[in-house]
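Hey, can you fold this one?
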Amino acid sequence: MTKGDFTIKEIAKMYGISTHTLRHYEKLMMIQPERTDNNYRSFSEKDIYNLNIIRDLKELGVPLKTIQSYLENRTVENTTHLLRENSKKLEAEISLLKKKVTGITSRLKIMEELKTRENQMNQLIIRKIEERRAFQRLSEFTDEAGFEKEMRSLYGELLDVAEFYQFHYVGGIIDWLPPESSIYKGVFILESKLVSNQLNQFILEEGSYASYFYKGNYEQTSKYIAKMEAELKREHYRIIPPFYEFYLIDFHETNDKKEYLTEIQVKVEKS
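Sure. Predicted structure:
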């Protein structure tokens, strides 16, 4: 191959990139095409070599600035160092992708399991539940916007603790004010990993819990808590507050509030 064999359009077609990209590489001195008598760019064998290196390293995810520095000082030692560093970066990315896939798989499994709750809608269920670990943020709110604000704050506090690529059960903590009024006192995230020095962690104790599933908007919560209270009283159960409202399917999964799925839980014991 002799010097000056290719024009900018031919190179762009050969590498599947734009002429603008080639001009950008030229501006960064990563390639240095000569000029013909008509002031057209003429790409040399060295430019072809550099473009091959740029293409290969970009496919490996190496930043352009790193490639630029590498082209200026390319040795066997530097090549070995670059490949080792990039290998570590790719391993970290693979690990992160695996966590994300695990989180998606977990969420899909749970959504499939939630389909089995269809026959449990709008009825009181008493069930034994094992101890659950969680984090909470105590702050009163009155609507969905307030919940999201508090939940975002709680997520921010826990970024170094929890793997948020995994699915987490989240919800609101409710103080019940009979006959049909409730106040949200905080938010929670179920998370099995408890860490020392985290003051906002707590445990939902093992025991019997009254559970009530319903579909639709959250304005129905107070109505269903009142219904739960009446039924538990008839069955001679004592309520151990607070109530926990689990958001199983919400705006993350659907725009249709009729499809929202909520579970209300409260610890109980026989009177």
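The chain has a mean pLDDT of 89. Let me know if you want another pass with a different chain boundary.
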